[in-house]
Amino acid sequence: MKVAFATDDGIRVNAHFGQSPMFAVYNVTRSGGELLALRRLPEALHQDEAGKIDCRLAAIADCTLIFLMQIGASAAARVTRRQIMPVKVPFGSPVEEQVKRLVEMLQGKPPLWLAKVLRTEEEEAAYGSDGE
After folding, report:
1. What pTM value is reported for the model?
2. How is domain 2-127 classified at the architecture level of CATH?
3. I need a surface site. Which of 4, 45, 87, 104 has the fewest CB within 10 A?
């Protein structure tokens, strides 16, 4: 599954969803995690709140989880409507540490929230996300 991390340096989860200058995107499986991309967001000087959220949603549209330190209520609602689960972690949490914890959860018995996310992802893969 693809997982995004709100970051300003690609190393630590240290950004609020609405102010994050980039997302580190990893592919995470039971066997490990690998960095796929650092998706930098364009600087928009006069973007309103909805525009900021839209831009960030587009950047993580293919992700299943988004790790961040904070997210506003309206952004959280829009993220979850896109079938992306926001996961709050402490400021400065190392991305690699979060990836490692996620791999360990996948290898063992995933917590209920993660099991639900995985089930949804498997159903979409089985039936095709475009309704075929």
Report:
1. 0.89
2. 2-Layer Sandwich (3.30)
3. 45
